[in-house]
Amino acid sequence: MVFFRKKKDMPNGLWVRCDGCKGVVYKKTVEERMFVCPDCNHHFRIFSKDRLNFLLDENSFEEFWENMVPCDPLHFKDRITYPERVAAEQKKTGLKEAAIVGQGKIEGKPVMVGITDPSFIMGSMGAVVGEKIARIAEKATELRLPLIIISGSGGGARMQEGVFSLMQMAKTSAAIGRFQDAGGLYISVLTDPSLGGVMASFASLADVTIAEPRALIGFAGPRVIQETIRRSLPKGFQTAEFLLEHGFLDRIVHRQDMRKEISKLLDYLQNKK
Amino acid sequence: MVEKSVAELENLVLEVEHQIKDVEGACQKDGVDRSVELKVLRERYEALHEKLRSRLTPYDIVKLARHPLRPLTADYISMIIEDFVELHGDRHFGDDKAIICGLGSIGQERFLFIGQQKGKSTKERIACNFGMPNPEGYRKALQKMMLAEKFGLPIVTLIDTPGANPDIGAEERGQACAIAENIYKMCRLKTPIVNIVIGEGGSGGALGIGIGDKFAILEFAYYSVISPEGCAAILWKNGENASEAASALQLTARDLLRFGVADEILPEPLGAAHKNPRAMADSIKAYIVRCLKELKGIPIEDLLESRYNRYKRTGKYLELG
Ligand SMILES: [Zn+2]
Fold it and tell me: Are residues B170 and A219 in contact, defined by beta-carbon separation less than 8 angstroms?
């Protein structure tokens, strides 16, 4: 599955419009290229399960704590209640929450993996995401395995869980801290979009940080910045390329090379403790 | 009986306040004993305040936390800290005036002090960027915290920010990275840390100096994952619903105490901190001394373990089947 736009002028869903070059491209070609536009290399947003398939060895993934679901500690209600929102998002995405964590292999090498999915309430971090990320870091510490976390979050913190979601930034950062103390290798992979509380916590605390081309990455969202400074933002602002230029990324890696590149990093950076 | 509105109550409070002043003035003039009359007036004054306090909505509290006369970090420094030695600069980029750092003492207790500063005059506010720190502010704080750790000084932080600065320069210099780094390092810093929210506790911008072993919040301060206005704009698609959003977010001192996020509420003087800054400062001072004395006695490994668990246990979730 992929976030292809529904367009009346694209019968049978054979064609999709590319957000990068605005061109119309053959859907099957895009899919074969891991949802990357053959014309402009635009990386389409994809679901976390597809990402895991692309990254990990076939059938190597074992999910942990898959039945963890959010509570409603604030009895939060905006236009709809939080439980209603969660139920709608679960139905829409087929996910129970925004994060999936577990163990898998990359070219035969065992790794701990976490991923957040921007299609589930903007990939925002509530108690479930925070707890899963913290637990996978703790498990990686215990089993002395490398940790790879793929972030995708347009929302940062989960507003509907109020201050509890803010505390997840502390929880995940503290767990990464212990993992780092034990000498583990942590690779953070930033995908479009990675913003807010996720970026201001675990996603920014890796030994090696890589991003997909053109991914939107930052602390404040571009809309908030634009409203604050009341002028238009420079071209390419907050893209992966912008972050690389300013020294906050180690590498930008094409989706089709991701598995190979991470495998290479795993070979180079082995824990000798 | 019809309940009086907040505005009516406020007018009554002012009225009684004037009556008290008049009676006091009269006493000074003619020396007549009016203590009974004064006692009655003062009781009435306190009762009205209590009533007013119970009628405040969460959004009223947010507005009190942002009150233009509310005492700021710099005011508390001058009222609380003896022998303050300010330390500037992040050693990389600049000196962010939205975060003040320095060494200070209260009696026998010596510590590193860090506080977010909003500024009072227009000129000050602009210099402090309205209390919205840049990455260099967080990095300055971290550099001083490492110094404190090295020399065995505990750390006290005062939180008062609408949020970290959302602008182009801040993004270019890695706002997210700077905040993440502070949270990560503060979780492991081998020295006691006390956090006190004195006004606005704005999201990640607050958390960037808000990790510690003790957490207190002033009675009319707030601490939230997002501003009520921001939340309303996203979830209600309308900034006008800020009051509703403030209620939904449960961001008041009482909520935080109930959630176990805050350990203590520091009660504010009648009419909030700006009515009697000195009394507020004394209460903050007493809290700092009490915490530092208590934390000093705890072995550092135990302290770090309980700091870790403080955050590990927050947040509710269900595990099905
Ligand atoms: Zn394209």
Answer: yes
**B299 pLDDT band (50/70/90 cuts)?**
very high
Q: How far apart are CA A241 and CA A246, in angstroms?
A: 9
pTM metric for this prediction = 0.93
Residue A202 scores a pLDDT above 60: yes
Sign of the Cα pseudo-torsion (B149, B183, B138, B262, in order): negative
- The angle subtended at Cα B132 by Cα B130 and Cα B136, nearest 5°, is 125
The residues spanned by each domain of chain A are 1-44, 46-268
In a mutational test of the B interface, the residue from A136, A165, A169 whose CB has the highest number of chain B CBs within 10 Å is A169
Residues of chain B with C-beta less than 8 angstroms from the C-beta of A229? 167-168
Q: Contact at 8 Å (CB) between B185 and B193?
A: no
Q: B242-265 pLDDT, tens per residue?
A: 999 999 999 999 999 999 999 999
CATH 3.40.50.720 for domain B63-312:
no
Closest CA to A236 of A227, A228, A244: A244
Fold of domain A46-268: 2-enoyl-CoA Hydratase; Chain A, domain 1 (3.90.226)
| A111 neighbors A139 (Cβ within 8 angstroms) | no
pLDDT in tens, A67-78: 999 999 999 998
